[in-house]
Structures are given as C-alpha cells and as structure tokens.
Amino acid sequence: MGQVCAIETKAITKDNIRPWLAAMLEETKVIAPEESHGDILYEFIDSAEEAFLDHYEVPPWMSIKRFFFPQMDTILKYKKGPAGIIVEPAVSELKRVIFGVRACDHTALTFCDKWYTADGLKDVYYLKRRENSTIINLACNKPGKNCFCVYADSGPFAKTNFDVQLVDFGDEYLVEIGSPKGRAITGGRYAALFKPAPQNAEEKRFELLLESKGQFKTFVDQSTVTDKLKKDEVPDILWENMAKRCQNCGGCSYVCPCCICFNVVDKQISEHEGYRIRTWDNCTFAGYTLMAGGHNPRGKQKDRFMRRYYHKLFYEFDKFGERGCVGCGRCTTTCPGKIDMARIARSILMRGA
Amino acid sequence: MKKVLTTCTYCGCGCNFYLQVRENEVVGVYPSKEHPISQGILCVKGWNVHEFINHPARLKTPLIRKNGELVPDTWEAALKLIEVRLNSIRKESGPDALAFLSSAKCTNEENYLMMKLARAAAGTNNVDHCARLCHASTVAGLALAFGSGAMTNSINEIEDCDVILVTGSNTTEQHPATGNRIIRAVDKGARLIVADPREIPLVKYACLHIRQRPGTDIALFNGMMKVIIDEKLLDEEYIELRTENIEELKKIVDKYSLEYVEKITGVPAADIKKAARLYASSKKASIIYSMGITQHTCGTDNVLTLANLALLTGHVGFPHSGINPLRGQNNVQGACDMGALPTVFSGYQALSSEDVRKKFAKAWGVDKLPDKAGLTVVEMINAAAEGKLKALYIMGENPMLSDPNTEHVEVGLKKLDFLVVQDIFLTETARLADVVLPGTSFAEKDGTFTNTERRIQRVRKSIDPVGESIPDWQIILKIAKLLGYDMHYDNPSKIMEEIASLTPIYGGVHFDRLKLFGLQWPCPNREHPGTQFLHREAFSRGKGKFSPIEHTPPAEEPDQEFPFILTTGRMYFQFHTGTMTRKTSQLHREHPEGYVEINPADAKALGLRGNCQVKVSTRRGAVITRAQVSTIVPEKIVFMSFHFAEAAANRLTNDALDPKSKIPEFKVCAARIEAVR
Ligand code: SF4
Ligand code: SF4
Ligand code: SF4
C-alpha cells in the first residue's frame, strides 16, 4: 500500500466536468451527487446540470451501497404453469458510471467484493452490478466532522483499485486513471476534454493529502480496539450500558457501506405466482437470530449489540485482514442512541479496562 | 431511479424521508438529514416504510358483494351501486341515517373534503374519525383550559428541558423521534420523571418511576398539586396575571393528602413529594402524555388535571415548558384541524355558531348546513346496532380492530343496510363491506399532513396509483357528485387554498410556502412565519382556567370473577391495526404474534410458563394468546397490544365512554387469565 496505483494521470478543468458528464450520459446511465432540500444525495441524473459540483460536507448522505445491494431487491420471479414451476432470476444489466465517490465508500465497495465472493460463492446480483459500473472517485481535501477514514486506512484519498480518481487542484482536477474501465471514460471520444497533468502534480497531491489528513476531528484508534476485543478485555457492563441505549431502528446497518446482511422473503401474487425479494437486515434485531420454535441464541440485546462490533472489528479483520468499518461516520448521524462506531470505540478505549 | 421527499405515514412525529422509486415502484427509503425532525434518523417503521406500498395484497380494483362474496368489479359499477343505495337511504330515512368515518391516515385535503362531503353533500354532521379513540379528551380538555387543544411546544424544544414528566406515553416506542429528544435531554442533564404503571423503556433514563394503578392519574396529580401548594412552590405571579379560578382548585385539591393519594394510587408518599418538588422547582418543565391519560372514562378530567398542574407552576406559554399531547397517527392532528369531527368545522370553528354555519354555507354554495351535532365513532356503531344508522362510509379506518368491544362493532356493521369501505388493503372492516373502493397510499398522492407539533408538511406523490386505485381525494369528489353536489379542484393545492380561506389558523398555509419543511399553525396569513409554541403572552381563550377535578374510579374495576386489570397499548415494531406493518417482513419478523404481558408472581400463582397459551377474558369476550412473563407489568396488571387480528385485544376492552369527550376506556378493564391446556 502507500504507492499510488494510477496507470496514467491527466487533468481536467472544472469547466469541463459538466460536458464530460453530458458526454457520458449519451452512452450510459450516470449517478452523481444531487442537492435536494439541503441534502446531498447520490442519484441517477438525467442531465449534467443536475449534478451538484460545489463544495459540501462529505460524505454525501447515504452511501452508494444501495446501487449494488438495494434495500429491497427482487431476485427472482416464479410461476406455476402446466409445465411445472418456472423460475426467472432477476439480474440487473444496467450499465452505469458513478461520479463523485469518496474514498471511504470506494474502499467499502472493495471490502464488500470480498464478502460477495467469499468461500467460493458468487453473488451474481451484486457482481453483475459491480461489473456494469465504472466509478469516478473524488478525493477529499476537507473531511466532514464525523469522518475518520484516515484511522481506518480507507481515505481521504483512495490508494488503489479505483477506475478514475479526481483530486481537486483548485481550478482543475488531477485525473488519476487506475483501470481499463477508467481509460474508457477518459480516452477515445472523451480525450479532448482532458489535458496533460501539471508539472508539479505529484508534490501538489502530496501536500493536499497531508493538509487533509491534518483536519480530522474524530479520532478512532481501531487497531487498539481490535486488540482489546481479541483479548476479550472489554467489561460486560460497558456492553450492557451501551446496548441498552439501542432503539432498534436498524439504521446503523442500513447506512453502513460495509454491512451486507440481508433477509430473503417470498411474496405471493396469487396461488400460482410470486416473487422473491431480499431486503437489508440488521444483526441487532432479535428476529435476525430467532429460530423457528422461539429459541434465540442471542436473545439479549447486549449479545446482539456486542456481536455487531466483534464482527466488524475483529471477525472480519481475522477473515479478510480488513475491518468492516471504513470510517465514513454515517452511523454517527443516524444512531438515535448515540452508540455509533466512533463513540463505541471511544468508550472502549477510555473506559474498557 | 428517482427520490421524492415526503412525510412519514406512520406516527405523528412527522419525520421526512426520501422514497426511492424505480419503474413506478417504491424500492427504498432513507431519512432527510436536514429536516428538523428526522435529522438523518428514522425509527424501524420509517426505515421499512417502502415494503408495504407495492405489496401484492394491495387492493387494485373496486369490490362489490355478490351472493355474499366480495368480487372485483369496475369503478363504474361500484359508483352506480353507491349512488343508488346512498340516495335511496337518504330519501327514505333522512340524511342523518348516513355517517362518514374520515381518516387520520389521509391528508388534510382529504379530511377537509370528507367533512365537506358529509355536511354539504350528504347534509349530516355524522362525521368523525379515530381521533375520537385517542385524543378526543385532549381536544376537549385543553380547549377548556387554554382554548386550544394541541401540543403547546415543538418536538425540538424538548431537548433543552430541565425536567420532563412523561405519563401515559411509551414515547420511545410510539413516537420514536420524540422519545429520542427526551433521551437527548437526559444526556444533557435534564431529569426525567416517568409516571406509568408499566416499566417502559424510558424508565432506564428516569430519575423517578411512579407506578400508579391504571385509572388513578387524577388522584396522583392532585396529590402533587397539594404538595406544591402546601410547600408554596406555586408560581403566584403567573397565577395572578394569567389564570383564573385558582380558589376552586385549592378547595378540591386540599383533600388529596399524601396518605389518601397513596391509598388510591399505590404510589409511595415520598415519590409523590419528590415528583412535585422536581416539577415545580424547575423553569423549563414539560409534560408529555399520550393515550395512557386520554383513554379513560375520566379522560377529559385527566387532561384538565395535567393542565391544572402546569398552570399552578407557571409552566405554559414559554419555550420548553408546556403540555404536550403526542398525537398517534401521522395526520390525526390534521384530521381534527380539518373538522372531521361531529361538532366543529375546520380550525375548530363551532358548528353551534350560526355565523360559522353561514360562512361555510356561503363558501360552499349551499342554502344551509345541518346544525344538529353529529354522532361520534362509538355512537355511530351503537346507532347502527339499533338500526337508526343505515349507511356508513369508511375511509382508511379499521374499526373492527381499533374500536373497543369488537363483537359489538361487528354486530353494528353487519346490521347496516349499506357499508362502503375505501382502503388500500382488504382490512377486517373492509371484509364486511358491500362495496370496497381502492384508495391510494401516501406514496401515490399529493397533499399535506400535520404532525403532532402542528407542523403542516408536504406529502409528495412518488409513484402512480397502484392498479386501478385512485387517490382518496378524487374518490370523495366522485362520491359528492353522486349525492348531487359538485366539487371541483385541479389538485390538492387548490383544496388547501379553500381551507386557508375558511380556516383562520391555517390562513397563511399555501403549498408554495411548504417547499422546505412546513409551517406550524397558528399561521393566520401569508406573511406569518408560523408558531413554534402556543400561548406566548395570553392563552387562546384569554386566561388559563383551573378546573377543580375529583378522582373517579374506572368504569370497571377488578373483582373476584375478573381479578386483573387489563390495559392495552402498542409495540414498537407494529403500527395500529397492523395493516401495513404486518405486511413488512422485518417488522413482522420481530413480533409475528400478539401476547399478554403478565408479572412473574401472577404467572407463578396461575401456573403459567413463559410463551404458554393463555385465555384472556373479560365481560365482553375472550381471546387466546401467549403469555409473556415479565416484570414490565406490575402484579395484578396485564398488558396487551391491539395490532393482531387473531388475538384482538379490542374483543376485550370496554366501550364505556368519557361523558365529556366520548372517548372509550381502552386503558382499564377487568380481566381473567387462565392457562390453556
Ligand atoms: S460503522 Fe459507521 S463509520 Fe464505520 S463504515 Fe459503517 S457507517 Fe461508516
Ligand atoms: S443505529 Fe443505534 S439505535 Fe439504531 S439499531 Fe443501530 S445501534 Fe441501535
Ligand atoms: S418516528 Fe414516527 S414519523 Fe418518524 S419514522 Fe418513525 S413512525 Fe415515522
């Protein structure tokens, strides 16, 4: 790590961003940040004008997870006919470019890739969407107030695996191209919109990165927390006290770009016809581990809550060498009980023996 | 895919979220981060609101009963039948043989049209809705004491209170966004008093939990007032300048000594004292209550008693201090504001005033409007059972589960000559109808909802109506026409223009002003910014009025045959009669069935084990459900929720009414528990 994995660098003036988006819109669907009632949200845009390109507090509200793993996704349809049951899987074939993705969300996506291909399984619904997407990252020169990606080693600039990453140089963006997909949207018919990278690009990039790293306000020492969990050093009472503040809203998993749990249910249209959906789930719900017959191996809120953090900071680290938290800080906003990742980590570090 | 900002259809907090739409289907939801209530947070119901909208069980065509069965038919046939039946019933038995149930789930515009339909088109004041079952006593009580029956403060003010008294409200479960503000206040150092027989989740944050026996609230608060008076903790200046009738109050309250109150309520004298001192000696003190206060035969008196307590200590008319009834449904505040009630027009303008009637008659282009007060929800059922009410038109309500004494409701509804139900699913009530009309969910129409803090907010259409369903406001226009009365509006914003012109508290409300996050009434004119808290310098009625109130026992008390007190309520993962939440997989999974909460000591005495089947019976009926053995309820008190048709708590509840507001006593009745072997 550490090394920037761009295969080519260019630059683009800010004035050329909208024309670039417009040109891409002629060929494919484009998702970009939009402004709506004060919120900054990723959404499909119909015209380049709809994209919000001014400064805003990062990251945009709600991650790009839902474009790969929708909140409610029809995964197959079934019909009983004279010839037996016909099952029709519903895999999305839509090609799209996602513009303005922040390093945390991008890292989360590469983390989810591991889950969706783990143990020899391949999740076709997710992987197809992944294959059909080209991602344009936008590096963060100024972190938001809840951000702590720098401590999760996932930002504020993406290091690897991106298709394209833009770094804000003031009047223009440095364009780092990292993959053939990235080449495809910066070369060919788009090439005229770009120019060569400036002379001092590397130094300037380095300075901006340092400057950005110096501005983080939320400190989360994840590796010490992982250590403490590994050694079972967090006293029970701490978990009890945090867990009892949980309001069971489910929000922490819903907003988290690294949470991948889902539930599968069938919906009947008629006796002969129906469809199967999968929906986002949350491990803090009692129903998540409830078994037929009423037994619940994690019947207590504390057990469920504790497991969420063991899972994110310890089990996943063990399995993939990466934690299930990229430090986007969205759970800090959405948790009504104020027991989000940053606060939990802090209280474990401060109070946990 | 696109996203549409709209207002939540579940509780009265009024969170705003974005519905995510793909190919005319709602496939997801997420909270607005900038909205003053949601602030990036939703409760589990809000986070799962998308799932029921396109559920396959949605009603997609009208249904007509043929040979005893409801079968799909065309709009034309359904409307024709309604036209013939309603008109012939009205001709034979007069307009008062017709009644209309409006809906706290529907928009303000729809509620306004519904009451206009009843009054101007059908010619009857028989129009009511489920507010009767939750806060009729609030509207009556607070109107008497202050002149205005709504939350005095705003949700966001709660966060900065010094003392919060929560009584009869399981706030974190029933009004999650508001409950969240209470927790924030405690985090910031506020002291929380919970007065509730059950150990609700908020108790974890409370410095004092008072467990009064159900139905003894008046005695409890009178006891607190006596402490306040005796210890001179009252706000004399405030009482002198802003209230009247204090002497009457003092006379009554004097008898409520701590010993006497302890005997009635079961609350230790020391706790009453502590609560009184805490509440009276803080500047920013707020009372938050809900149906634990209102759903009693003494509901209005309960509300008046809380008003007395607040007036005595000068705790109304300022930011953070006040009396805050939390309204249950997304738009129950609005449905009341719109006059979907048998005795008032929109904005609580009294039916009894000739001027008011003339004003509306003129605006609506009719010669005159009926002046006889109409029937309330439970009275409609009674009149139906007696054969006096012949036709009932129900929009978006499910009295078969929501009203007390279900068996009696069923008898009433079956006795009707003609029952029309307009809803989005085939509810228990719709199953009894002669004609069922498919309305639309909140995602398929434009309009406004008014949340519990009087904030009028936009509801925005995000998908086209499902199947052949039609937005409810358009259905009402069709029905009015069948009754020979033409109304025409291009869209809901035009309806709001009419509401604003006739309703002083909504006078400045226009859709173009609601673009961001709404306006709080009173908002009398276009320039007015709306009102964050009420009664700033004077009460709506001038002076705050003390009403001396005596404790009265519940209509039914436990005895040998029925030794338990049964109290009812709701739970977090379900909503109301479960029509929507039980069709949402994650919500349903948490609590797939109903249960009765019973204290371990009682369970032991009866030989009940956790999760075993039990029969709960009262004088009105019996249901079989499961025992949930838990210290959440004290001994001799059992609790059930009313979400589940198969274990319908309202088969058991008492339909005894508060004489002042006609609210039924859902919160107390006598019950017997037996093991089913
Ligand atoms: S745990 Fe919280 S901060 Fe970490 S990635 Fe998930 S939402 Fe972001
Ligand atoms: S966001 Fe907070 S309150 Fe909601 S489920 Fe997660 S931990 Fe619990
Ligand atoms: S708190 Fe109420 S308004 Fe907010 S999301 Fe939940 S049910 Fe809807």
Overall pLDDT score of chain B: 90
* Spatial gap, N to C terminus of chain B: 54 Å
Q: Provide the gyration radius of chain A in Å.
A: 22 Å
CATH class of the largest domain in chain B reads Alpha Beta
What structural class is derived from the secondary structure elements of chain A? Answer: alpha+beta
Tell me how many strands of chain A there are: 12
Order of strands side by side in the largest beta sheet of chain B? 5-4-16-15-14-6-7
Strand proportion of chain A, as a percent range, falls in 15-25%
Taking the sheet with the most strands of chain B, its summary is: 7 strands, mixed
Query: In DSSP terms, counting alpha (H) and pi (I) runs of 4 or more, how many helices of chain B?
Result: 24
Unreliable stretches of chain A: none
CATH level-two architecture of the largest domain in chain B? 3-Layer(aba) Sandwich
Strand residues, percent of chain B: 15-25%
User: How many structural domains in the coordinates of chain B?
Assistant: 4
Helix content of chain A: 25-40%
What sort of overall outline of chain A do the alpha carbons produce when their principal axes are compared?
Answer: globular
Which runs of chain B of at least 5 residues are low in confidence (pLDDT < 50)? none
- Rg of chain B (C-alpha, Å): 24 Å
State the largest interface. A-B, 43 and 44 residues
Q: What compounds are bound to the protein?
A: iron/sulfur cluster
Number of domains of chain A: 2
